[in-house]
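Problem statement: downstream parser choked on a complex file, so we are re-checking the raw output for the S-adenosylmethionine run. The parser issue turned out to be on our end (a line-ending mismatch), but while we're here, posting the original submission so the record is complete.
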Amino acid sequence: MNRLTTSWGAYRLARFPEDPRDTLRAWDAADEYLLRHLHGDDDAPPTDLSGTVAVVGDRWGALVTSLAAHGAGPVTQISDSFLGQQATRVNLDRNGVDPGSVRLLTARQDPPERIDVLLVRVPKSLALLEDQLHRLAPAVHAGTVVVGTGMVTEIHTSTLKLFERILGPTRTSLAVKKARLILCTPDPGLPRAPSPWPLRYALPPDTGVLAGRTVTNHAGIFCAERLDIGTRFFLRHLPRRRGHERVVDLGCGNGVVGTAAALANPEAVVTFTDESYSAVASAEATFGDNVPSGTAEFLVGDGLSGLADGSVDLVLNNPPFHSHRATTDTAARRMFADARRALRSGGELWVVGNRHLGYHVRLKRFFGNCEVVASDPKFVVLRAVRR
Ligand SMILES: C[S@@+](CC[C@H](N)C(=O)[O-])C[C@H]1O[C@@H](n2cnc3c(N)ncnc32)[C@H](O)[C@@H]1O
């Protein structure tokens, strides 16, 4: 756990789930710069934070914890991440801030009707930013203070153009510790356009039972604009099974893997699960369009935490290997351990991954066995059996 020092006070903050081996902090220089600006530590006067404050893209709750502890608000956090929301709840609690003082909304819920201060931690995905600004624009009025923040490498001309096009005239601050602010003056007279998201496209011919079928992608989910090449490889090598069984698409993204499993085995009951609200909503739409009479359940959560021990026959998984900009295999390790717990004896975990990630070593350690089902120069599909 680390301590974020601001002009309002110091806060103990951690990511979620907390892992003592994980050295990654729960905030960065972009969050610090924004908080200093709001306090009036740069040339600008302090920001009036007594109105409705909406914070978008606050990764682990560092911004809303600092703001709520300072008495700003009412404060609303808008996040697409279940883990981010959990981190926020824990961080508020560990700093003695009433968790009820911050309203937590998901990216799929309706935003507040009127926003006086809009703070945007620029997301990695430009598409997510575009969708969010479209959804928030009706709540922004001429007097709304709009400030974005991000690392210099995350803010591009295209980022500023989005603010300009959807909200109003925009400029940037000087860079400080490789972070920059986006300062936008809302123009309520701008013509309103609907968000172009979600995006639907037809899958290519080499995707087995899914060939030519349509997939739905909400903004910001993994590979929202085209099929991932690892997923594509996985779709060509999925297990061929028959009969009633419980299958889990773990980290489902747009749900193509679980939908393929349901089409290949109509007796399978598929659970789609992801920590992204938009991913689970996408999977629900993809499954609904392609398997209208199928049975499935859709869970937002951390790994398989909603599933009982020994309750699953087959887990299909394309693990994440990025947490925001950091490369990490923590999520994959946790998913493999969780899959072992949730599988019944004889149940199987199938994983696709880049060869260089060395998942077979991890799987052998967790399961005591691991077989290569398919490989090409870039990817491997691995199978581990719960004994
Ligand atoms: C590499 S993507 C795979 C998506 C999809 N299965 C595919 O192949 O296109 C990994 C997915 O895992 C999800 N994820 C990351 N951490 C998670 C966690 N702790 N619990 C559940 N899902 C998680 C991400 O949101 C992302 O959708």
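For whoever reads this later: The mean pLDDT is 95.
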